[in-house]
Specification:
The complex is a heterodimer.
Chain A (H helix, E strand, L loop, with lengths): L1 H5 L3 H8 L18 E6 L4 E5 L9 H12 L6 E5 L12 H9 L2 E2 L14 E5 L7 E6 L4 E6 L3
Parallel strand pairs in A: 2-3, 4-7
Antiparallel strand pairs in A: 1-2, 5-6, 6-7
Chain B lengths: L2 H24 L8 H29 L5 H6 L19 H19 L7 H29 L3 H14 L13 H6 L7 H16 L22 H16 L6
The chains are: A alpha/beta, B mainly alpha.
Chain lengths: 152, 251
């Protein structure tokens, strides 16, 4: 079993976390969103600090469940904490994360162009959308409504 | 009064304000005047309830009396809630809601700007809350302007709604018993009367160009956060109904 334990590295844990999809925008993972603030592999537990994107995000329980399920393969207890020690901001979304948002029809934060046709001829329809992190927009060029990740 | 008793009082009043504001405004879900506002008001209410939850969680840690955030939020009798009288009003029409939200959002912003680093978990949370509240401010300011300039009926209703809030408007700044302790501990960086002055300056910048009156100055009394209305008792019945229907259940 020694060899199996040796496989629990920080990189291996991060790789596993990169497979945990955001329940509200499944095209991106919690790593893409920059929610992972700290990963520590200790002898007794894998300790993870995640930053909620929004304070009242109702998806946190679902994320906790997915993380515990995904890391279960390491055979070590998972100590997962959500905290506000560092405020999550949309600047933490990684470049691949921004690309995946765009590909799934979401304008990345602070990018006022249509994710479908790239036009800048877009209007804000509503600062608020179907979840706390999304706003509603309309592209006048391709006449396509789209959503954007709200900058915070 | 110890700093931790004073901190508990601050957290409870902040949490109760967000909780009651969030639940009352969530009553618009499904019946707001236009679809966009149905979405917006539902999202804003969800934010406020999330903020209340985070504040109740901090309070549960400070109190350490065996109650969790849900127990504090739902297991009190109506009289024990400490929200400001401004929020202790019936939902009313859309203008009443916008007037109440406007007075409250700007007051909450002045309060959040008064929180210092004396208790790090609160300071960390407040830094995050302020990023989200920014959107609530943009939303309500757009509506104040729209109602004030939207013709006689819209303006008339807004004027009546602001006047109706009247003396209750400033009750968010009802002095706390432990304010001196909070200032000493650096949990507050300024007293509530200074925060209230900042709020009035902020209100003036919005209301005066629109030709609207500021709420009256009041002598703060013990009823600023006590003695609740029938509207709140009704709301309490609504928001505790699920919890009361099966005591001790895990939802």
């Amino acid at each position: 079993m020694v060899t199996e334990l040796a496989e629990v590295t920080r990189d291996a844990v991060l790789e596993a976390l990169a497979c945990v999809a955001d329940p509200e925008i499944p095209a991106v993972s919690i790593v893409d969103l920059g929610m992972v603030e700290d990963v520590r592999v200790d002898a007794d537990a894998i300790r993870i600090e995640l930053l909620p994107t929004f304070v009242g995000c109702p998806a946190l329980d679902a994320i906790r469940h997915s993380v515990e399920e995904r890391l279960g393969a390491f055979g070590r207890p998972v100590d997962l904490e959500f905290g506000f020690r560092v405020p999550w901001t949309t600047d933490r979304i990684t470049p691949p994360g921004r690309e995946r948002l765009r590909a799934s029809g979401f304008a990345p934060p602070d990018e006022a162009t249509c994710p479908y046709c790239g036009s800048a001829d877009v209007v804000l329809e509503n600062l608020f959308g179907p979840t706390q992190c999304r706003s509603l927009h309309y592209c006048r060029a391709c006449r396509q409504p789209f959503e954007a990740f709200k900058p915070v | 009064m110890t700093a931790s008793t004073a901190l508990a009082e601050l957290l409870l009043t902040m949490a109760d304000d967000e909780f009651v504001a969030g639940f009352m405004d969530s009553e618009w879900t499904g019946i707001a005047p236009i679809l966009e506002e149905d979405v917006a008001m539902s999202s804003i209410s969800q934010d406020e309830l999330g903020h209340a939850k985070a504040l109740y969680e901090l309070l549960a840690e400070v109190l350490d009396d065996g109650r969790d955030a849900d127990a504090i939020a739902y297991d009190r009798e109506p009289e024990a809630y400490r929200h400001a009288r401004l929020l202790d009003r019936p939902r009313g029409d859309w203008a009443d809601t916008i007037a109440r939200r406007f007075l409250y959002e700007l007051a909450d912003e002045a309060r959040l700007a008064s929180i210092g680093g004396g208790y790090a978990p609160l300071a960390d949370l407040v830094a995050k809350l302020r990023r989200e509240e920014r959107y609530h401010r943009m939303h309500v300011l757009a509506w104040i302007e729209r109602l004030a300039t939207g013709g006689p009926e819209a303006r008339g209703r807004l004027v009546a709604a602001l006047a109706g809030a009247g003396e209750a408007a400033a009750t968010v700044f009802t002095p706390l018993d432990g304010e001196a302790d909070l200032l000493r501990a650096g949990i507050l960086t300024r007293a509530f009367d200074e925060a209230e002055a900042a709020w009035r300056t902020d209100l003036t910048r919005v209301l005066v160009p629109l030709g609207l009156d500021l709420p009256p100055r009041i002598e703060h009394g013990p009823d600023g956060r006590a003695g609740h209305s029938d509207a709140f008792r009704w709301l309490w019945g609504e928001f505790t109904s699920v919890r009361r229907s099966e005591v001790g259940a895990t939802w």
